[in-house]
Write a structure and sequence with these properties.
By secondary structure, the chain is mostly helical. It has 14 helices and no strands. Helix 8 runs parallel beside helix 14. The two termini are 39 Å apart.
Length: 279
Amino acid sequence: MHERRRRRLAGAARYAALTLIFVVLILPLYWFVMSSFRPVEDIFRYANDFGIRTLVPTRITLQNHIAVFRSEFTRALFNSLFVCTTTVALSVFVNSMAGFAFAVFEFRFKNVLFVLVLLSFMMPFESIVIPLYSISRALGLVNTYGALILPEAANGLVIFLFRQFFLAIPRDIYEAARVDGASWWQIYLRMTLPLSGPTVAAASLLIFIHQWDAFFWPLIAASSPELVVVQVAVARNMSVDQTNWGVLFSSASIAVAVALVPFLLLQRYYVRVVGLGRT
């Protein structure tokens, strides 16, 4: 009896702790989303004295959202969606082939190259910005979609995830396919890649979110107004002189909502594949 009561109390304490953590994490997000529906003069009016009016707007307006869609943000949405989807398609193809090669083939310096692949996604991006920009300029990619897409085509973490999946496939299956006359290209394209659906989904989510959140590289490599992406468009609502808080919160909440869609659809695959990668 006492043991059961102790378990119930422990369970209740866990749920209470999780609820508190959830509230602390979600409250800032809720506040700025609701602030996007407030008139500009009301956004910070009740911020100092925390109360019900801080969380629930006393007046609702859609003017901030209307202003967003009348600005460059609509173009930025198109650019980001195009860049993200194109990068996902190209990156899944490139990284899955690399992962397949590391899992199946034996070649000189294989382990050294794989270590370099692992180091590539641990390296701060800022440390390679200058050489990357120099290469992009030499290839004539600056201020093109290519500058936003091609540098992200190869991803060390995604290569690692595909390698772990292909390693889990018994070697006998590859050998049986080879005995039946299948080429390595056929084995990769018709047999192993269709089996890697969860890994493809998890990789797609990682690449999409990474590209959707990109700010520093698009700001440098594609400064043309026609190539502005979502994060740059959001940041342009802030300046040294003044900040349009209503439009800033509105554009940021739209950016979060769009990124949330693939996350909710693919999160279960991500959890499953990351668990596989740790085993």
